[in-house]
Amino acid sequence: MLNAMNFVPGHGVDFGPVGRVLLTVLAIYLFASLLMAIQGRIIAAIVQRAVFRLREETQAKLARLPLSYFDRQKRGEVLSRVTNDIDNISQTMQQTLSQILISLLSIVGVLTMMFVISPLLALIALLTVPLSVWVATKIGKRAQPQFVKQWSTTGRLTAISRRCTPGTRW
Known about the structure:
Helices cover about 85% and strands about 0% of the residues. The protein is mostly helical and about 170 residues long. The N and C termini lie far apart (about 70 Å).
């Protein structure tokens, strides 16, 4: 390893290349932070537009309801429920869209790095993972009835042992 590094005994560490690597890492970190901020703003805008339309449609629906409905229900309770539900939908959409985008970008990044580092190993991994999932699914489908039978038998044995144990209180 030392032979491959142009290592000269008695000389200190050349901090020039180390500094360049650190600057590159800093630039990548700043760029990633910028992209995360842009992603957050775009997702927030999409979610807010969707929630705005949902609130408009909800208001239109509430306006079309007959007065007899509001005689049976308290208007404040209905509005509170609707507002709470829409806020929950908004939070769920925000989190879900962010996670989906981050997951997709992570998959693309990992696959890119896999092919950059070793195209052959990346291809082997991409072929064996689906094959492994398929095999595990087939084994799981065949084993599931056996697991159900095992748990049923275990339940019967537990019931018998409790009945036979002296001093058991039900």
